[in-house]
Each structure stands twice: as C-alpha cells, then as structure tokens.
Amino acid sequence: MSSKDRTASDNSMKDLFYSHSGNLIHKWDHYLDIYPTYLSQYRGRRPTILEIGVSHGGSIQLWKQFFGNDCQIFAIDINPECSRLEEEGVKIFIGSQADANFLNEVAHQIPDLDFVLDDGGHFMDQQSLSFEILFPKVKQGGQYIVEDTHTSYWPEFGGGLRKDGTFIEKSKALIDSLYNYHLFEGDNVRTDNITQNIESISFFDSMVIFQKRLRAQPFHKQIGKKTINPYVVPEIKKPKSLSERILAMFSKKQAEEIHPFVRNDGGIDEIK
Ligand SMILES: C[S@@+](CC[C@H](N)C(=O)[O-])C[C@H]1O[C@@H](n2cnc3c(N)ncnc32)[C@H](O)[C@@H]1O
Questions:
Q1: Do residues 149 and 209 make contact, with C-beta atoms less than 8 angstroms apart?
Q2: Cα(211)–Cα(198) distance, integer angstroms
Q3: How much distance in Å is there from the Cα of 193 to the middle of ligand 1?
C-alpha cells in the first residue's frame, strides 16, 4: 500500500493533527500517514498506550481524539513539569528512559499495552534500553514503535552511518533473528523471548515498527498434482582453484548437518 493510498483510506489522524488547536504537538508529517495503518484498529476500542516523551502534552490530546476519550494513556518524561499534564485516563511517570530501575518500576505498575510509542530523548542507549524493558509489556498482536530513528545517523545522539550500537543497527540485527529457523548450526544470532515474539519489523524514514506475535517453527508444504519435469540447476564443471576446493570442503561439512529447509519440511500430499 503506498503512502498515497493510505492517506486516501484513512486521513483522519492527519485531519485531527492539522486542525489541532490544543497543547503543542510535534510530529513529522509523514508519520500521520503511517500510524493509521497500524493503529486504526484501536479506534473506539479503549486501547492501553504507553508514550515515552510528553513534552507539552499535545500528542496525548491527539491520541484521545483519535482513539476515544476512554483510552488509557501511560506516559514517561524526564521533565517533572510534565506531571502537570496528568488528567483522567492519563498517568505520567517522571524519570529517565535510560534508567533501568525506573523503567522496570513503571513496567511493574502498568498493565499490558496495546502499543508503545518511543518519542523521548532519541539517544541510542535510551531507545535500546526502553525497547528491552518495555517490548515484553506489549500484548500479542501489538506494536512497539520507535520514532525519530534518524538520530541513529547523527553523531550528537550517538549515531553515525552503520555505527555499532545505534538503534537502526540493532533493528537490522534483529532481522537476522527473524530468520532463526533457517540458519545453520553455529550461526550466531540473538534468540530469546524478545526475538521469538517479533513477527515483523517495518522500517520507514525515521520510524521503526515492531509487530509482536509469537513465532512458531515455520514449515513448507506441497499439495496437488505434479505437471512438469522440474528445472535442475546445471552443475558448472571446471577445474577448481585451491580456495574453491577449501570452500567446497566447508560446504560438505555443512551438508552433513540437517539443512534448515529439510528440517522445516512439512512433506508432500501429492494428488496422482
Ligand atoms: C520530542 S518531545 C515529545 C513530543 C511529544 N510526544 C509530541 O508528539 O508532541 C521529547 C520529550 O522527551 C523527553 N525526554 C528527553 N530525554 C528523556 C529521557 N531520558 N527520558 C524520558 N523522557 C525524556 C523531553 O523532556 C521531551 O518532553
């Protein structure tokens, strides 16, 4: 779905934003096209939300308008001034998203969440720690959204192109974890309760969205009548160089393990 289609099908968040006259909100315009794809499902369904980064409280007002006044909003900000913005249905915790004890305490006090939105300090350690502690609080089928991930490319936020430890590099590494069932023995990727519960990762300009759902071991299956002789990839026969021979020996070692494709084979129900 293109951004244009999305806007055509649900531009109400954009309309609400551009007609907003309440407390100050600060959003990139294109976020308002992306959010409805993931979040419209919660409209009128009293979602439970956690937003990191309150600022003037404008986004809290926008969420109330978009999801309904009876949604339950939890928010975090380092600025004690923000506690003035608490109101019915809005609980604000004052502390730093870079403080593990504080985040664990918040996590302990709040119910499971439909989605988390990290629009806080945008430093690498803040985004990473918050993700590790708060992703487990997201319900199955929910989302963990990190905004303004362009800071992963900005030195003043601890970023830099392909620099180790940025939130974007962390998110890229989590793509490998999505493929854990297709890897060979000894292939080293992160596999734990968090990675096992990431169903998909969507990368946008300045935003990363993690869709949460427990992944079971996948399997492939063939059903139906065979109709053609399958294409066989021709083996290229030519004298092998030393490096090619070493490579071939290494591949042979791998071939002795069960190939992941075989491991995930659900069999064939062939109709004659
Ligand atoms: C971009 S503003 C939030 C904007 C708001 N969500 C909106 O859409 O209008 C970022 C907020 O994060 C807060 N902040 C900065 N560092 C923080 C930290 N370490 N922990 C929690 N909040 C932090 C700032 O005080 C500020 O209010």
A1: no
A2: 6
A3: 28
Q: Cβ of 201: how many Cβ atoms within 10 Å?
A: 16
Asked whether the CA dihedral 51, 55, 60, 62 is positive or negative, the reply is: negative
pLDDT digits (tens, 9 = 90+) for 164-217: 999 999 999 999 999 999 999 999 999 999 999 999 999 999 999 999 999 999
Inter-CA distances, 104 with 114, 143, 235, Å: 18, 19, 57
Q: Give the Å distance between the CA of 231 and the centre of ligand 1.
A: 57
Domain ranges, ordered by start, for the chain: 3-212
CA distance 35 to 42: 11
| Residue-wise pLDDT tens digits, 74-83 | 999 999 999 9
pTM, two decimal places: 0.89
Alpha helices in the chain (DSSP H): 3-9, 12-18, 31-39, 58-67, 100-109, 124-134, 167-178, 193-196, 242-256, 260-263
Ligand 1 centre from 28 Cα, in Å?
Answer: 15
> Ligand 1: residues within 6 Å at CB?
25-27, 51-55, 58-59, 76-79, 96-98, 119-121, 126
CATH architecture of 3-212: 3-Layer(aba) Sandwich (3.40)
Q: Where are the alpha helices (DSSP H) in 135-210?
A: 167-178, 193-196
Q: Whose CA is nearest to atom 20 of ligand 1?
A: 96
